[in-house]
Amino acid sequence: MLDRLDQVIVAVSSAPGPAAVGIVRLSGPGAVELAAQVFRPVGGPLERACGGARIVGDVVLGEGLDLPAVAYVFRAP
After folding, report:
1. Closest of 37, 26, 41, 39 to residue 75, by C-alpha
2. pLDDT exceeds 60 at position 1
3. How far is CA 15 from CA 9, 21, 23, 45, in A?
4. DSSP strand E in the chain: where?
5. Are the CB atoms for 55 and 47 separated by under 8 Å?
6. β-strand partners of 40
7. Which helix (H) or strand (E) segment is 45 a member of?
8. What are the pLDDT digits (tens) for 25-74?
9. pLDDT of residue 4
């Protein structure tokens, strides 16, 4: 097993099958910056979020395709 602490891990965390909510987890260095490429928060930039922040916004999937979303930011350690 590779022990790579310098990579961002992105994984679907919701249960398989139809659901009202989908969960995608990002962790590792640069995870917040990667999420900021598709997440548009209401208010300030995602990169400024403190540990334990809950941020409401939209995930932008394409031209005119925005989905309501919530980002939870938990910074290390």
Report:
1. 26
2. no
3. 18, 10, 9, 29
4. 9-12, 24-27, 39-41, 53-62, 65-73
5. no
6. 58
7. none
8. 999 888 888 888 989 888 777 777 777 788 888 999 888 898 899 988 88
9. 66
Which tokens hold the place of 32? 């917040």
Amino acid at 65: L
Residue 15 backbone phi and psi in degrees, to 5? -70, 150
Specify the pLDDT at position 20: 85
Rounded-to-5 percentages of helix, strand, coil across the chain: 10, 40, 50
Return d(Cα 51, Cα 12) in angstroms, integer: 22
The CA-to-CA distance between both ends of the chain, in Å, stands at: 23
According to DSSP, the residues that pair with 12 across neighbouring strands are 24
